[in-house]
Amino acid sequence: MSVTVTVRVPAKVNVQLAVGAARPDGFHDLANVFLAVGLYDEVTVTPADELRITCAGPDAAQVPLDVTNLAARAAIALAGRRGIEPAVHIHIAKDIPVAGGMAGGSADGAGALLACDTLWGTGASREELLDICAELGSDVPFSLVGGAALGTGRGEKLRVLDVGGTFHWVFAMAGRGLSTPAVFREFDRLTEGLDVPEPVASQPLLDALAKGDPDALAAAVSNDLQPAALSLFPELADTLAAGRSAGALAALVSGSGPTTAFLARDPESALKVAEALKASGTCRTVRTASAPAPGASVVAGN
Predict the structure, then answer these.
(1) 139 counts as catalytic
(2) Please, are residues 23 and 280 in contact by the beta-carbon 8 Å criterion?
(3) Among 94, 139, 207, 224, which one carries the catalytic annotation?
(4) Other C-beta atoms lying within 10 Å of the C-beta of residue 261
(5) Catalytic residue among 12, 29, 41, 117, which?
(6) Which of 41, 43, 91, 212 lies in the 20 to 30 Å Cα band around 146?
(7) Catalytic (active site) residue 278
């Protein structure tokens, strides 16, 4: 058994986020088409006297280092099922934007779960790991699976999707964060009294993914949370406009935001959009990445 295990886990972009009306439990039914992108956190677990979390990387100071962190909750959940103590040091090397709507926290939860499973040799099945992921949060199962998937229910019920090519993305990070619960509350406020349709995956979007067609994907992307995110953070409209002006095929808020995502035709176009966004003064930092990316995977250790 290795004394250290490191797992690499990707960020995500939602190429479709269809949101239904609020349910009695406060959640919303979703049709959530996830695409994993090549920005990664690495989660390393090492045996320790007690559960401890450390974090390094961009915006690491914003990451909670207590049991509210999904990585800690993942270790506690798996240890609880096996009747053992979650006595590990979890170190998160951050590269996924923090509080950016790219599932960085969910990625860390999935990464810690797989790392602890490997370190402890628990022999958990894929189904059990996904079950624990679903308990941790709506986006955590996809962080384990990666690639592309349709999430239904509150996003945790996954159907893996075919992707027929590589898609090139630019991500613009905003100067401040947005709370996902606050964005959903604003969605509820904006749709109060309206007939909110049942969320359904877009067949043209699924076809575009399967064909690897960036133009068709650009025509089909959508995010029902975008009006709520823009209502709370109006300056994001300037970032979206800057990316479109630079030639992005599509521009949208990623998930609940505030990161904005821009689909480009090829790597060269992505670099052009990235440079224009950097020069626009409408965002804090800019990253480029391709998709799809693999899900959580052990890169060091057992």
Answers:
(1) yes
(2) no
(3) 139
(4) 28
(5) 12
(6) 91
(7) no
